[in-house]
Task: structure prediction
Amino acid sequence: MKEYFPDIIKIEFSPGKTGHGLFFRQYNPVEITGEKSMKEHLRFSMAYWHTMCCGGDDQFGAPAYVRPWHDVSSPMKMAEERVYAAFEFMQKLGIEYFCFHDRDIAPEGKTLSETNKNLDKIVRLIRKMMSETGIKLLWGTANLFNNVRYIHGASTSCNADVFAYAAAQVKKALEITKELGGQNYVFWGGREGYETLLNTDMKMELDNMGFFMQMAVDYAKEIGFDGQFLIEPKPKEPTKHQYDFDVSSALSFLKTYNLDRHFKFNIEANHATLAGHTLQHDLRIARINGMLGSVDANQGDLLLGWDTDQFPTDLYSTTLCMYEILKMGGFEKGGLNFDAKPRRPSYTPEDMFYAHVAGMDSFAKGLKAALRIIKDGIFDNFVAERYQSYSHGIGKKISDKNPDFKSLEQYALKLKSIENPSGRQEHLESLLNDYILNS
Ligand code: XUL
Ligand code: CO
Result:
């Protein structure tokens, strides 16, 4: 078996060490923080598509990444070499989970049966590597957007043959996700959206998408797949309007089609910001609805209007993300999947390591800060105090849903003055700074 990163040894936590070099400055996998070790809290995952498949091309330029496992004779050989490179990479970083689309791990053949055979062969190899290394599958999914057959979408395509083909593809993806012990199965919309309403039967497309997901839920039950189904919202790209725009709209879709009890959310930072939200906003909506499942950990560039999928290094975002995750009691089946790629000029194999180390350290720091914020209760206490008017008097009656408009009018007519407390936003932001700096 070829070693793909011979110059890189296992990356270690090196407290106090500074300067360049591949080592963790914040992430100590075995350190107990709260009740769990850091690695149990964070459950880092490698995204196969960016890290193992992406060539670093963009709209204006050819592939630029140096990825030695890409330079082999045939697509199947490349798929095999990719598996070896992936497991060596994850082991050297101490990443214990990975995620893939069916087409990331094995190439399409001339027919669907040939494609499925390709998949079976690579799945056998992946399974062997998983049992040798202890690395686990966080989630699997189907790529229903790259092949030109999905030009009008998959389950929302105007073409019933495409709907059927997509169903066959998801059936197989569920089978292999189960076979590899996947803890979740993800639906990201791909091309499930529209370019213009002038040619679109929106009601039929949404009904079909609901039916498609119901069939997936039914089939999972039939084959005994007990992983968690996740929806990953994104507002636009590749289509102008994706149906799973953000957590709120995807939640309303799930409720309309009676699917909400079968699904949670996989929330991606860059998708939330494309929707005009912070990552914390979408995490909060999912959390208060008991539907926060997993996170695609990355960040966008707010000066660019597209999905840049950068590695997460913004400590405010990682801290507030970990705050929401800890507040829901931590991940159950989910994790932090680095759906991120190095910038095109960071084209060397070492950059794959530097980029992941940056993301892992940023989340370790965020975890430490969030744990202390929660332990000290600084925001909780402030919020409780801010709403204390609902704990007694008229507020208590409102909380108990007792009054009506007439009794509230009686109360309001007798009010002599109204005093409001301060929101203290700037003070709270400076406390957040302190926690990030001092954790
Ligand atoms: C696309 C995206 C996907 C999903 C899986 O923006 O995030 O890679 O995470 O299909
Ligand atoms: Co994603």
Observations:
- Residues 49, 101, 141, 186, 188, 232, 234, 268, 296, 307, 339 surround D-xylulose (ligand 1) (CB under 6 Å).
